[in-house]
Amino acid sequence: MNMMTNPMPVVIGASAGGMAALKELVAQFPADFPAPVFIVNHMSPHTTGEALVRVLNESSLLTCVHAHDNQTFENGHIYLAPSDQHMLIGKGKILITKGARENRSRPAIDPLFRSAAVAYGNRVIGIILTGYLDDGTSGMMAIKRCGGVCIAQDPEDASYPDMPQSVITNVGADYCMPIAGMGALLSDLLRRELPESGPVPEDIVIEAKIAHRVLSDLPSVEALGDQVPYNCPDCGGVLWKIAEGDMLRYRCHTGHAFTSSALITQQTVKIEETLWVALRMFEERQNLLVTMSKNESKQSPSSISQRANDSQVHIDRIRAMLKATDTDFHSEEVG
Questions:
Q1: Residue 159 and residue 236: Cα distance in Å, rounded?
Q2: The CheB-type methylesterase domain covers which part of the protein (predicted)?
Q3: Does 260 participate in catalysis according to the annotation?
Q4: What is the mean pLDDT of residues 92-116?
Q5: Bond from prior residue into 7 cis (ω within 30 degrees of 0)
Q6: Closest by Cα among 99, 166, 162 to 138
Q7: Quick one: which of 333, 165, 335 has its CA closest to 265?
Q8: Cβ(130)–Cβ(163) below 8 Å
Q9: Among residues 42, 66, 86, 256, which one is catalytic?
């Protein structure tokens, strides 16, 4: 199949429940599908994604491959973001980068969607499928602002409705439907005659460049929003607040980015890590004090014993906090 000089890319984001959803979707694409397809499916950095590539190749008439940097893309092919790397697209080529995580994920959906909006404007078709939290909402907003098409899986059709529901609530989907109807819709959309795309808003261009690591400086981030008294849970840097409609996002100058939900979740993770370290240190302190009370005669044993009892009070408090933190974390965990 020949690469079009001005393709109409289809960009897809999925998370929890993504394999089954993507399998159902790509099975609807005909062999002469007239567009390149780019997929980000959240995955652990320790997985290869080969299982998903195999499933999509078995389910679709199209060829699915892991994308690689500087790769020229073609119509009728599916390109899957590799593990632990962002996939972006430029004019006719794929860009793979180790840029900072967005919404706790790498690969993340937002960077792909923004890059597509910058490169292809109103020719982009974005699809958001099943998943926890709200990665993909900001990227879909960029597609919408550039004149592209926004498709969200019907939340009642999704195994995990958070991601499509967030897009519907915060962006306003052009089409909200079960996966079963998306193949026919795409065939219709890809036959459209489109006017010339307008200029891309500067803030979308800046964020797309940050994801590609072209920009990572204070003036660039300051142009996007206002500094807030919170620190980035990933690197400790200062955060800037970005308002997009009713949705708030946060970004540090090194490139980490979070929606409010993702920021709360990552803060919870870091709190849990800190509490485990504190618990270990208090238990070590208590064990040392108990040993001292048995073996040292120069200090008052009762004083040392009291300090050991005080440590136990702190240990009990930390354990109680860890139980509460564990409950919060599992209720907010990203798929």
A1: 35
A2: 3-193
A3: no
A4: 95
A5: no
A6: 166
A7: 333
A8: yes
A9: 42
Does 68 qualify as catalytic in the annotation?
A: no
Could you state, in order of their start, the residue ranges of all structural domains in the chain? Answer: 10-189, 216-255, 262-332
- Phi then psi for 163, rounded to 5 degrees? -65, -50
* Cβ count near 90 (within 10 Å): 15
Q: Are 221 and 235 in contact (CB under 8 A)?
A: no
Query: Where do we find the tokens 């602002």?
Result: 145
Q: What is the pTM of this model?
A: 0.85
Please state the CATH superfamily assignment of the domain spanning residues 10-189 in this structure: Methylesterase CheB, C-terminal domain (3.40.50.180)
Cβ atoms within 10 Å, residue 309: 11
pLDDT tens column, 214-240: 555 677 778 889 999 999 999 999 999
Q: Percent of the chain at pLDDT above 90?
A: 68
Q: Which of 58, 62, 23 is nearest to 41 (CA)?
A: 23
> What tokens were used for 15?
């998370």
135 is annotated as an active-site residue: yes
Angle of CA points 103, 175, 191, to nearest 5° = 110
Residue 164 · residue 136 · CB < 8 Å: no
Map tokens 């709360």 to a residue.
264
Q: DSSP secondary-structure letter at 152?
A: E
Predicted pLDDT of residue 191: 94
CB count in 10 Å sphere of residue 313: 10
What kind and span of H or E run contains 287? helix 260-295
**Nearest Cα to 71, choosing from 49, 84, 57, 89?**
89
User: Which listed residue (15, 105, 166, 311) is catalytic?
Assistant: 15
- Reported confidence tier of residue 121, pLDDT bands at 50, 70, 90: very high
- Confidence label for 1 from pLDDT (cuts 50, 70 and 90): very low
The DSSP secondary-structure symbol of 20 reads H
* Among 135, 154, 157, 234, the one annotated catalytic: 135
